[in-house]
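Quick one, T. Sequence first:
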Amino acid sequence: MANEFEPRSDRQYYIDWLRILLIISVYLFHVGMIFNTWEWHVKNDVQYGGLLKQVMVFLHNWRMPLLFMISGAGTWYALKNISAGRYLLERTKRLLVPLAAGIFILVPVQVYIEKIDQYSSIFTFYTHIFDGIYPKGNFSWHHLWFIAYLFVIALIISPFLNLLRSSRFMAWVGSMEHIFTKPFGLNLIIIPLLLSQVILSNFFEMETHDLVNDWATITYYLIFFLAGFIFLPVRSIAGAMTRYRKVYLAETVLMMAVMLLVRGKVESVRAAEVVYDVASIVMSWTCAVAVTGYARKYLDRNTPFRKTANEAIYPFYLLHQPVLVITGYLVVRLNIPVLMKVSLIMTSSLILILSVYWFLIRPFNVTRILFGMKPKFKSPTNNLKVMKTNEVKNGKYSVSKTACAVMLALILASVSLTARAQESKPERTLLGPDVSYTSVWAPEVRFSSIQGKIGATVGGYTGVMINRTFMLGFAGAVNLTHPTVNYGYIGGIAQAVAYPSRMVHLSAQLVVAYGSTKDYENPKSSLFDNFWNISGERFTLTEPGVNIEVNLSDGIALVAGAGYRFVSGIDSGNEYVDITHLTSQDMSGVNFSLSLKITRTGKK
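Structure tokens:
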């Protein structure tokens, strides 16, 4: 069966409405966190379980998975035919810039309020922002984990964009269409969801939101993202969600009932946990499908408010939690009834969020970019303001109809010529004959500080690069120059390169590795002192980084980079590290690198 895709040019308004409503649900969920029995950044003196807890359990299990699912669908519609490099560049602007801005502008306010008794002012706190990783330390991304995870997912799928858009893959989806369009057919996706958690939960905790130890959660959200990317644009499959929305809703109600009743009815604690976890995964999927079906049925329409809200919802998400922490901290201290506290927190926080957005973010290009919005037109007479006024639109700055017609004709001619040129080119696929494979060898020196002492790590990476834009390979290094700590690691590396043909260009990478340390009570007598007896405490390492690459000659590039090493697993009480009291936090930190990337072209 040939599957029919929704045209990318047709706006799917229900996706916008779902995004708006889900972000609002995140806001309401965090309001509830102030008053329920779960740990959060600001808590009311009296906390409540019962119905509030059950409602929040329900919301918690499906709102974020569905948000990742519609993010996947939104990505499909936004991609069109752009390359993996341009996709990652767009994701960097849209995700990494707001993430960095939020980490240094919004999150410190929240951490400061949580630790307000330890610092005399917010300015004093900023001088200690890099004192360790939250919660023991001060550096964190708090609610911005969602943005970080979206970028990680973008890195994961970018090398497979051609495959996911190829006619071969579309044909495979079409061959499965007869299954997915039947009642309960979409429940087939529950299988990979369950398998991912059964396998990965043995190695990683769930929902740590720290990226390093959260790969079970990332994989879970990745499956939802891919489901949105692959299924929602297919008209028949999305139509099945609408047609059988009541079936999936009934399944959701049944699974929620199992979750509420199982712990009180099953005698075995372990059996109860297993049933609860399975029911929660099934409920997360069926609820996401049901909500999507209802939204597609009743919300696929445009209004002026949709456009305004859709533009504002991303800054709203970035702002909502710090504002709630501020207003919550002030209000929970008041001696007033709890309903008045809820009303006061919601009213004051909404006013503050919308005021900051409307008057400080929306009008200016700089703040728009920092908060993930597209820049607006800047007129010659209004360098700071970016919103076109009616005078600019309708007055002396208006463009004549003749000029518009000429410009439109030129655009149409350009598009026509481009389309004809594209028709003569063969379809690009991920593993087709038009793909180039390049071997990469890169010796590297990396500098970092451990317990206040600088050491140099010597190593490198090797791998295979596809179309000069994405590399997968192995990385390893040893540190012999630190006065008290030797360590080494080996693992995998993924690297995405933007515009590699330019003399100066950027790349982003992620290293995930396993390593071992060796400590010394006294400074080493020589570089290799006791190195071959390196049998200290083991650790896992996750290290994202960005690089500037300069093409020196054909196949040789000089690379300078910076990254942040996240280390976990070191037991400070281990016999090998109890002398210097080395911790995972000591091993974690910023590092800088210098390498020479040597590439050798493989087959075409």
